[in-house]
Amino acid sequence: MLTLVRGATRIEKGIMTYIVTGDCVDCVYTSCVDECPVAAFHDAEDKLLINPETCIDCDACVAACPVEAIHADHDVPEGQEKWVEINATAEEFPVIEAAKDPLKGPKCVNPNAA
C-alpha cells in the first residue's frame, strides 16, 4: 500500500510520469520540446530529461521523438530502467523551451532521424 504524504513531491509519491531513455543520448532531437505544453524538458548536454514535477502526463512528446526515446514510467523498455532515476535529476539542468539543432553525436542510435 502506498502512503501519500501531504506536500510530498511526485517522486516521493512514486509518480514519475514520462521519461526520456538512453536512446536520446548523443542525439538530442528537440521536436519533443515544442510539443510540451508545460516546459518539462531539461537540457542535460548530451541528452534531454523530463522533470517529473512539471510533466502533466499528456504524452504529446511521445510521438514527436524520432528515436522513440520517450516512454511512460510503467512502460520503460527492458534495460532502460535506470533512466527513471536519471530523469528524476532533471532540475539540476536548465529548462529547454524551444527546439534547437539536434546533437547527432557518435553515440546517437539513429543519426538519420527527422
From TrEMBL:
Any one GO molecular function term: electron transfer activity
PANTHER family: FERREDOXIN, OXIDOREDUCTASE
InterPro entries (alphabetical): 4Fe4S_Fe-S-bd (IPR017896), 4Fe4S_Fe_S_CS (IPR017900), 7Fe_ferredoxin (IPR000813), RnfB_subfamily (IPR050294)
Keywords recorded for this protein, A-Z: 4Fe-4S, Electron transport, Iron, Iron-sulfur, Metal-binding, Transport
4Fe-4S ferredoxin-type domain mapped to chain residues: 46-75
Protein name: 4Fe-4S ferredoxin-type domain-containing protein
Listed cofactors: [3Fe-4S] cluster; [4Fe-4S] cluster
